[in-house]
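To the team - inosinic acid complex, inputs and output below.
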Amino acid sequence: MNNLNEYNKKIKRVLITEEEIAEGVKLAGKRIDALYDGRPILLVSILKGAFVFMADVCRAVTIPCEVGFMCAKSYYSGTVSAGAVKITMDLEQDITNYHVVIIEDIIDTGRTLNDVVNLLRARNPISLEVITLLDKPSRRVVDFKADMALFTIPDHFVIGYGLDCGEYYRNLPYIAEYSEE
Ligand code: IMP
Ligand code: MG
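Output:
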């Protein structure tokens, strides 16, 4: 990326401001505090997209918690999920003694998270739930619902706050619509 003008032109409009994100993060922290007080919890995020949201959510949580990261890629033939999630980096923790809370950036077709959830459930955590910052329900291919979705958005490609386009824009502090032009 060598043309700053081109770079900025792709940021079409702000969809969710920093302030709105901060409000949502607070709600996620409150939910975790209320549900898991006195319990062993592991916040899990799937890299790279969720790293910013994870950093904020874990600091909105006031009870003791651990964090873990994994990297997952899903492979599909047509639209049929073969449970073909490939873990390119796995959690280092054994999750059997944890309440697992997946902290995700966005649920689009639902494929990645559906596979990851099935995989983690098979490892028998005490419980497992999913908190997502963004949800694009109109794009769903696999029937998947988060336990908490902070913002439901229309079918726009979005960037910022961890979300990328060609690896750029993850560092924007807000969520913006990407201009395809
Ligand atoms: P899914 O498996 O289709 O639900 O896709 C999940 C992944 O696709 C997310 O974790 C993102 O990395 C990526 N993704 C989906 N929609 C967007 C978007 O609007 N902007 C940036 N990345 C996206
Ligand atoms: Mg992601």
